[in-house]
Amino acid sequence: MPELHRPDSGDHGHRRLLPTLLIPAFVSLLAVSSVNVILTSVSHSLKAGGGGLQLVISGYALVFGVVLVPAGRAGDVLGRGRLFAVGMLVFGLGSLASGLAPSIMTLNLSRIVMGVGSGLLNPQVTGMIQQYYTGRARGRAYGLFGGVIGVSVAVGPVLSGALIGWLGADWGWRASFLINVPFVMAGIWAARRYLPASAWGGRGAGGRPPHSAPASGAGRIGMDLDPVGMTLLATATLLVMIPFMESSAGAWIWLIEPAGVGVVGVWVFWERRYRARGGAPMVDLSLFAIPSFAYGCLAIAVYFLGYTSVWIIIAQYLQDGLGASALASGIVGVPASLVGAVAAPLAGRRVIGVGRTMVLVGMLLGVAGLLASVGVIHMHAVAGWSPWWIALTLLALGVGQGIVVSPNQTLSLADVPLEYAGAAGGILQTGQRIGTSIGIAAITGVTFRAAGASGWDTAAQTGLLAAAVVIIASAAVAMVDLRASRSSRSTRSRPGRGSRDGDAGES
Fold it and tell me: How far apart are CA 56 and CA 494, in angstroms?
């Protein structure tokens, strides 16, 4: 197993490393949750139509998803600190351009730049947590990362709504982008000051020092980034995601989907051939032979397919069905996000001891929260209950989210060799993005059709039940992994299982 370098084990740098990683991640994730609230203001300010507004959301998400895995591999090879800093810089420039955009076209191009920056920096966060933390300390670090995700989801819509209320429709939405810039500047300064020296140096191909030959002896010299593999996977991810995110373009767009699946096949063929010739592939496909990683990727992709659509359904039910304001519909999800943010670091401290059972319990809690929310909506329709009780039932979903995402990440990456930590983390996040895009298209599509036919009370119940069924499917995958890990626990022993090797690196 490659040596784990740790910042100032005496602890100074150790304590400062995690905030240095998590604050930029928090800011980049705000850009995902906050944008829904500003669309009306953007429409009035820039005279934008529905197509342009859709790209404000989907352009960022598409590029973010496409960049994740190549960026993770590039960080593994070139140095995670370098890609982290470059990602922050690109994200900051995109934020500045978005805040000053004179037209919807400029805003969409700027959002794409933001997506590139976010895609560059986020895999480096997981890669450096893998690199510098082990044992329970790693679980706690991922738990705090999960807490950051939860807080960003809660804060984003409220912050944007507050800025619009304070500064007015035009400058309010612009400020929601411009506020990123000082955080980015501070983040770049902190990265230069607090990231350890080893974070800035490349590992070369397959974790070897730069300019060394591969172990196979095939004679391939130098920094091996596998550019063909990067291009193929980026293209495949883009083609798979576009139909789900741009389904309003018409039926013809679904013709792209088979092409995306075909490019995936070409990518798999290339990666296998590249490895056989002595190269270091962007993604070592043998990673999927690691049960914890393969099952973890599948479980979280299916989970996000169900989970993400919930908040869109709730917001539309409250606004279109009950006439609530955008700010009120954003606030209803805050309690769930905050309890999730608290649950995530607590779960991170215990995940090594509890294992995949924790993820399974979190998924079942989410299902319970969704069923209870369906009950509230039903009782509002038939007995006049206050619909705002839904803020309470969604707490179970929030707690479930807190003990699913980060613990799953910890367990899924536990057996992954360090030299592929960034790429593997990128694969996990790409699965989440693809699951999100499919879920939003499919489940919200069903919900909107039900709304047109039967009204929003029925539609919201239908959509939430569909999400619950999908999360039950993800729980089934987690159950299979749990049984597999129990049956092989006594014999399984692989290099790179840093998270099971004790508590080195704990802070």
Answer: 44
Which pLDDT does position 33 carry in this prediction?
A: 72
Q: How many CB atoms lie within 10 A of CB 166?
A: 10
Alpha-carbon gap, residue 281 to 420, rounded angstroms: 10
User: Which residues of the chain does CATH 1.20.1250.20 include?
Assistant: 7-199, 284-488
CATH of 7-199, picked from 3.30.565.10, 2.60.120.340, 1.20.1250.20, 1.10.490.10, is 1.20.1250.20
Each residue of 310-347: b (16+ CB within 10 Å) or e? bbbbbbbbbeebeebebbebbbbbbebbbbbbbbbbeb
AA letter at 363: M
pTM for the full predicted model: 0.76
**Measuring CA to CA, how many Å separate 299 from each of 175, 306, 440, 478, 484?**
37, 11, 17, 6, 14
Q: pLDDT of 236-245, one tens digit each?
A: 888 888 887 7
Question: Helix, strand or coil for residue 107?
Answer: helix
- Mind giving me the DSSP string for 456-492? HHHHHHHHHHHHHHHHHHHHHHHHHHHHHHHHHTTT-
Amino acid at 132: Y
8 Å CB contact between 173 and 186: no
For the segment 371-395, what is each residue's pLDDT rounded down to a tens digit?
A: 999 999 999 988 889 888 999 999 9
Q: What is the Cα–Cα distance from 92 to 87, expressed in whole angstroms?
A: 8
Burial of 110 (0-12, 13-18, 19+ CB in 10 A): buried
> With the C-alpha atoms ordered 284, 285, 289, 290, is the resulting torsion angle positive or negative?
positive
Residues of the chain with pLDDT under 70: 1-14, 36, 50-51, 54, 202-224, 247-249, 326, 488-507
Q: Please tell me the predicted confidence (pLDDT) of residue 488.
A: 66
CA dihedral 431, 436, 441, 447 (to 10 degrees): 140
Structure tokens at 380: 């509002």
pLDDT of residue 218: 40
Please list, in sequence order, all residues whose beta carbon lies within 8 angstroms of the beta carbon of residue 482, skipping any fewer than 6 positions away.
355, 356, 357, 360
What's the pLDDT at 204?
Answer: 46
pLDDT value at residue 507: 38
Residues, the chain, total?
A: 507
Of the candidates 130, 21, 3, 115, the one whose C-alpha atom is nearest the C-alpha of residue 425 is: 130
Q: Which class is 284-488 in CATH?
A: mainly alpha
